[in-house]
Filamentous hemagglutinin N-terminal domain-containing protein (Leptothoe spongobia TAU-MAC 1115), 982 residues
Amino acid sequence: MSRLVWSKWPSYSWVMATTLLSAVATNGIIPTAQAQISPDNTLPTNSVVPNGCTICPIGGGTLTIDGQTLFHSFQQFSIPIGGAALFQNDPSLTNIVTRVTGGLPSDIDGAIAAQGNVDLFLLNPNGIIFGPNAVLQVPGSFIASSADNVVFNDGSIFSARTANTPPLLTVSTPVGLNLGTMPGEIRVDGPGNFPPTLPGLFVTPGHTLALVGGDVTMTGGTVSAPLGRLEIISAAEGQVNLSPIPTGFDLEYDSIPRFGAIHLSQGALLNTIGPGAGDIDLQGQTVLVEDGSQILAVTRGPLPGGDLRITATDSVIVQGDSANGQIISRLSTDTIADGMGGDLIVDTKQLQVRDRGLLSASTGGNGTGGNLVLRATDSIELSGSGFETLQALFISAIQGNLDISAAESGLLAGSGGSGPAGQLFIDTARLRLQDGALISTTTSGNGSGGDALITATESVDIISSIFLTGTLQGTTQDAGDLSLDTQRLTLRDGGLLQTFTFGAGNGGELVVNATESVDLLNTPPGAIVPTGIFANSIFGTGPGGNIEINTQELTTAGGAQIGNQTGAFLGTGLIPLGGAAGDVILNVNGTTTIVGLSLDGRFVSGPGTSSFSGAPAGDVVLNTGNLVISDGANISTTTFSSGPGGTLTVNVEGVLDISGTGLSTPLGIPVVIPSSLTSSSGRDDFPGVVATGSAGELQVSAGELIIRDGGAIAINSLGSGDAGTLNATANLIRLDNGGTINAATAAGAGGNIELQTPVLLLRQGSSINTDAGNADGGNIDVDTIFLIALDNSDITANAQQGRGGRVSVTAQSILGTDFREMLTSESDITATSALGPEFSGVVELNTPELDADSGLVELPVTVTDPTDQIVAGCPADSSNRFVIGGQNGLPSNPTRRLQTSGSWQDWRFLNDVAPATAMADDGLSTTEHTTILDAQPMREANHVQISENGQILLAASSTETPRFSGQHDASGECAAHRQNFQ
């Protein structure tokens, strides 16, 4: 585990040569070589260095007219172990600009010192190497660069590539560093431990230390600017602009066309630690921090901390730990005191944090934590130290003793003190967590949790990893919210996306917007919690947050869940403590698929809310196009305690299909459970957990509701709590092969079932029941056109130790079932009591009354002789008419032409019929091709249809039996789904 040990950094000022000699001798360093510091004699007033010196005072140099800038120019500038370069400058100077023109890199393994408050520039286009014993005793800022020249605000330059003489009358403060086409390397070597045995490169507090060149490499080195500013820039060409600021210089690199590599390894350290941390800015093509190397802008006092910004055109990688495994690779803007922490900002194409790499913008004190801002145009990939390590961390969180500094792989923007956590912002195309990675904005102290706002335009994958925000035990503040926007979200193999409260504060809201899909897959055997999305309240009294998911397709399988719990079942046992559970709201435009259990049977797939404490369970709302639940999965609101269950509302535009069963073993006891919609008190797969709270309500609306092969809708109670209420509305409700609608109770009041559908079909041992044990049976109300119950399918409201319930059926036709005094091998409707007939309930079958005399006409008693109605003759002199009635008869007007169209067509069943010729109204003949197949015998009607005007039709089919779908064409035939009854 990573533990940062903050040591007190000394205050550095000007020291003389004897002090430096004493310092190096104390560290066992004895001067053994001469310094290679030789003037090149290119200035009007040349630099002066004693020959053969090791501790070398440097005098001379050319001074500008205003006396603010001193120029030095050297052929070589290298300092050996134990050596020193002591600039003998006037303390009133502002700048010392030093160039090396000889073509060799500068090798600095000793000390560089200056007087007053001067800023020192060291330029060598061939590179600068700082050894393990390099020390800076510079009172102001220090800029080491492999640039070709320094640019001043009047456009003049001081070149190290071509030794020119600066215009002394116009030169002022440097404004830029102009790199050539092949700038040399800047390298810092060191012992690679922390705290360092040697101070390394540092400037006095409140100033800038900048390394600007080609590739910048730190191998175990230390570079420090407490309360100041660190600038590390690797560029292949272009100009870096300098802007004076109170802490030295701000380096700007917008005009750099090509960048280079920045590499920190073997425990290298960049830091601006202080009472208020300074700023750190890294810019390159690639930035690699590994082997326990760290970049720290940590606030240890009351002042606000600075920001840590890393910008890389290609990639940023933070990975690995030190050789002894004690130090992880880390980027941090933490605060451990009263000062506000700075922001940690990464801008790149690809960001990778892996193998004990960590990015943290957290607070461990009273100060507010900084923000963690990650922008990667291509991808962000996080990889941890294994799922087992993460499991152990999660157990520590549950036990209430999690120290956020113990996190070893991932991203932190949390609070371990009384200060509120900062926010986490991620903007990328693809975000991937795997192998035990962690993202957390959790608080373990008195500060509130931070929000997490994630945008991943293509995908988010959380695999065997955790992304969470919440509050731990003993806290009083609210958890942060978590918002995720993407195209595809996938969680699998123990992946977890969660907001939670373990304290007195509110849990955070969790919102997922996935334009294409959300897939939750596979809980591994032995997992503490299932794969999934959660917003729980456990241990404390704070209410859990709400979960809202908006997507096109939703799948949960292999024991994955979407859950909101008060208290918890964690695979290791029950936790009966927690505040009120939040709600789960799912909006799925396409299909929702809920399948199966985990491989070890301990976790059931599906969304739900539950109460394991005395607080109420939350509600679940699912709006979807189609819904499939199979192999023991469920959608549920359940109470396992004295708290009431929630309301489950399911709205399905198309087909809701519930089928099959699964084998569940959450408490080690195998139990066969149905695939189901459940709003219950207690559950069959938790046989040792006795619930006393009442079950909630269940409201279902669907185009077709199909429950088959042991599937169920359950609003039952297995304990002393009352069963719930079910209201289901569909164009067809079909129960087949043991499908059930169950509102049974063990001891509490029976449930109520209300069904509204044109066709209710029960087959092959299916049932609807509100049976009760030690209470009265519940009520069943069915409003339908056709009730069809076949193959010993029953509707019951029976009781064992109470009165039978009430069954009310309003239908135009009831087929295959009837009221009976007791259950039989036929299909029955009963409301009996085991206490005797006098305790039976009520069965009401409301069907239309049939009048046998309706439509009959009473015949006259006297029969009229038709011969009396025929006139024998008509006088020729009277106004008489002779009319032949019927189709195509004689015209009523004798002056009109007689119609010659065919007046008869043979509709008898013939094998071959020639085209019939008919005359149109205009007298033209038309041909109508009519083909009649082999004569068909009359058949018995075997299904019903409803025409558009609502007329009930009986029809026969020779090949299939259509089922009612509620959609019809103009002829009355079903215009939508047709399927054989199984």
In short: The two ends are 61 Å apart (CA to CA).
